[in-house]
């Protein structure tokens, strides 16, 4: 992987997150967990490039993201669709997702874990964590997407962007 600046990112963020999916990963040398996500965003907040990731409260990955200062968002080619599907449908409480997917863990500066097989990785320093407020949501959204398990929004400053050589 080679380091680039986020300003060199030219992909369609709607396609990358919403259609191709991404892995949200956090942990340490001893234990990591990852999950597939198709909701998120990129933008500028407080003068810095930010990534927004959404995690439901019951997801096992949440405790890893909550416990660490940094997390990563990893994007893969379509060749890894099966692995991303597994990471979105199985819990790390029950299986070792990294082993099942055949991923090789690498560490970004600051120790945040990511996978060498990824084409693009955003290393994010957690800056703000906000539980969604159901009172502020439209009723149709609550009815379609939720059963009282409202996402928690994680804002991460993109401190490093890694691209496959």
Describe this structure in words.
The chain is of the alpha+beta class. It is 21% helix and 39% strand. The chain has five helices and ten strands; from the N terminus they run E-H-E-E-E-E-H-E-H-H-E-E-E-H-E. It has helices at residues 13-18, 60-67, 81-89, 97-101, 139-145; strands at residues 2-4, 22-27, 32-37, 40-45, 48-55, 70-75, 105-107, 113-115, 120-131, 152-163. Strands 1, 2, 3, 4, 5, 6, 9 and 10 form an eight-stranded antiparallel beta sheet that branches. The longest helix has 9 residues, at 81-89. The chain is globular and about 45 Å long. The protein starts with a strand and ends with a strand.
Name a few traits of the molecule:
alpha+beta; two-stranded antiparallel sheet; 5 helices; 165 residues
Q: Classify the beta-strand content into a percent band.
A: 35-45%
Radius of gyration: 15 Å
The biggest beta sheet reads: 8 strands, antiparallel
Mean pLDDT: 91
Give the number of DSSP strands: 10
Instruction: Based on Cα principal axes, name the global outline.
Output: globular
Q: SSE string, helix = H, strand = E?
A: EHEEEEHEHHEEEHE
Low-confidence stretches: none
Number of helices: 5
User: CA-to-CA gap between the ends?
Assistant: 6 Å
Class by helix and strand content? alpha+beta
How much helicity do the residues have?
A: 10-25%
